[in-house]
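hey so u asked for the seq, here:
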Amino acid sequence: MPDLRTKLEAVVRVGRHLPQSPDMAFLLGFLAGNLARLHFVRSLEGAPVAIAIAAGRRHIWPGSVFEARVHSVPVPIPGALVSALVENDEPICVRVALDDPAEAAWFEPLLVDSYVHVQGDQPEDTLALRVQNVRGRIDQSLDIYRECRRLLSDGGGEDEARLKFFLGLAEQEIEGLGRQLADLTGRLGRHSQEEEREQ
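ran it, structure tokens below
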């Protein structure tokens, strides 16, 4: 399974091959902030969150560079997809079609066959596990924040604007996850007190 740094590089690489639009930048920023949930797949079959991205110079307009479904419901706009995904912790499966053979070869080691190979790693959803999951996501967002800062301090190059955007999103993600963690921790504490009273 690829590490977070490799996944972040993959998101940046995809961005280089897409038309520059606020919607796609927003989506890529969201994916960069949720690397633990992000899985690059060969097939989207069975994935509750399925995103197909066509990236490359030979992509024919007016076909969409972006298609997404959440529980089989089409979501035509990247911003609407992000809104739908903010409140859940489901794995995000992305299939990227690249017309650059070198880029396609770079992505190959990151790919898993399908959602079936992703879901085997998902724990049963309990309040305690959700707290653990959010803490893990905060750690990952902090890692992303630090990595973006490091890349920017090294010069950033052609990706400087994109990295600054990801940096801002990572800051927002950390703040939002902090609030979510406080809420879940409070609920977990109340649940524990109720269990103690019942015993």
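Strands lie at 38-40, 49-55, 66-70, 73-74, 92-98. The chain has a mean pLDDT of 82.
lmk if thats what u needed
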